[in-house]
């Protein structure tokens, strides 16, 4: 890929259309760092969102992803009732090849230069050990090691939140929150997907999984021998008798090719930005498929991660994650009452809070909501 300088016109144009507050292009030739930090909104407080380390095919793809993801974080945090705005970062490249202490420290210095407007954390391709390195040069970091004062890996709370969202969707669709006897297809059994499978097995669900990585599938089967495996996502979405489809890998899982052949009655998964384009939400409604909006159900990770920043004790944090059940049910009920797709209903609720906060500018500095 070429220099990030060619991305500047695209970043400005896309950020205007997405109403982002700030898009920062980061380069450090000595370490090989090429990253983008996008701050969508600080109306509710400092922008919080993880850093994704991914080998994007083009610079444009990286910018588009970080803009979508950061906007999603604003909506996720607003709907979760958090006093934090939305942001996201992406590091361009293969983490298996490029990850180094020097690169992470360079990224941390870019985050630090924003003075607390953006708080970074784990996402796809980054982990707790990476956050520990970044913390050496930047104090605006979550998800570090617990023994160093951090909140640790957010995968567990994320998986728990998705389970609660799935139970709420089951309640809305079938009149019972129990998943016992239901067949759930999980696409992507990385950190969150693996833990979600464990919850589903405990719930008494019949679980089918797929993943492009053989080692990830092997880990699931070794731990849960009763889980069924299919070759790929295309096979999974066509599996007859599937009650719930749970996309837990990267975004865009629901597109014009998948929706017409999807057999599940409910979609509820951990992946961000599952709808390939806004029209997919209406297509799902027209097919009678209930979609639990991704940023509603996968908010458990950020709820847990910001607990230390907001002075929230661990038991209270867990209780907030479990309340994703109530939030999801409220979104689904509003969607039904207003005759709109669930994603539209969720957006409306989040936008109401963001608009009210923007009018009052309800924060007085990094990490200090109004009235603190």
From TrEMBL:
Family matches, as Gene3D superfamilies: Leucine Dehydrogenase, chain A, domain 1 (3.40.50.10860), NAD(P)-binding Rossmann-like Domain (3.40.50.720)
InterPro entries for this protein: Aminoacid_DH-like_N_sf (IPR046346), Glu/Leu/Phe/Val/Trp_DH (IPR006095), Glu/Leu/Phe/Val/Trp_DH_C (IPR006096), Glu/Leu/Phe/Val/Trp_DH_dimer (IPR006097), Glu/Leu/Phe/Val_DH_AS (IPR033524), Glu/Phe/Leu/Val/Trp_DH_bac/arc (IPR016211), NAD(P)-bd_dom_sf (IPR036291)
Glutamate/phenylalanine/leucine/valine/L-tryptophan dehydrogenase C-terminal domain boundaries: 152-362
Presence of the UniProt keyword NAD in the record: yes
Keyword annotations from UniProtKB, A to Z: NAD, Oxidoreductase
SMART domains, sorted: ELFV_dehydrog (SM00839)
Organism: Streptoalloteichus tenebrarius (strain ATCC 17920 / DSM 40477 / JCM 4838 / CBS 697.72 / NBRC 16177 / NCIMB 11028 / NRRL B-12390 / A12253. 1 / ISP 5477)
Family in the record: Belongs to the Glu/Leu/Phe/Val dehydrogenases family.
Pfam families: ELFV_dehydrog (PF00208), ELFV_dehydrog_N (PF02812)
This protein's name: Valine dehydrogenase (NAD)
Top-rank taxon: Bacteria
Keyword flag NAD: yes
